[in-house]
Amino acid sequence: MLGLVNGAFYAMLSLGLAVIFGLMDVVNFAHGAFFMMGAMLAWIGGQYFHLGYWWMLLLSPLLLGAFGMLVERLMLRRLRGMDPIYGLLLTFGLTLLLEGGFRSAFGVAGQPFDPPSQLGGVLNLGFMFLPVYHAFAVLASVVMCVLTWALIERTRLGSYLRAGTENPALVQCFGINVPLLVMLTFGLGAALAGLAGVLAAPVIQVSPLMGSNLIITVFAIVVIGGMGSVMGSIVSGLMLGLVEGLTKVLYAPMANTVVFVLMAVVLTLRPAGLFGRQR
Description:
The protein is mostly helical. It has 11 helices and 2 strands. It has helices at residues 2-24, 31-48, 53-74, 84-106, 132-154, 156-166, 168-172, 178-200, 215-225, 230-250, 258-269; strands at residues 122-124, 129-131. A two-stranded antiparallel sheet has the order 1-2. Strand 1 and strand 2 form a beta hairpin. It is globular and about 60 Å long. It starts with a helix and ends in a 10-residue tail after the last helix.
């Protein structure tokens, strides 16, 4: 079950990365820091402001979305049209600044974060005992992934976003504010990372280092699913979480590397990824 829970978090994180890369062509290395900030803000809200879990489940993604839009407006927008490596370097530097700031303020020790009382206890499924909160985290992650996929692929706003990245000058001729759409896209990706952080906080200890421990794995999942593929990120995240969990049961020393072995195999057989478009 832990593999499915991890897979749900992987799916949400890789989905945010895929949305930003697919619609903005930006390799956002700060995505792990956004995940960490979502969890840290939830912990800070409960620890210092006595806000409940449900309040922080709403507020953390909103704050991260606003912060993401600010980052796009003040930093990434200046790099439009330049080599994508500059965006990667900028977001990598931003990651170091954010992690360093939280480490200086709160240290590196993990902090416990209790789930809400309404989601306490376990479910007896007959063949296993399932914590209620784990079931909620998986369900919430899957629902958000499906809603995001529907927004990008099945709505007029999503069509504007896709068109605006392929030919922004033409789309602007129709009166559509492309810079605003791009800013909202980055904010959406950051909000998804923040939401994943809040959902993960009661499962793993909250720490300024929690994002850097996951981001490399999430990048590998995005590559396996296909860079920029929304559906590929969702399916690959859930699938590889299960594979990782099964590997921990069968041969634990291999669990931390199985994702990268699968990435090497997929790139050898299909360089564009499982759901990516071959060029």
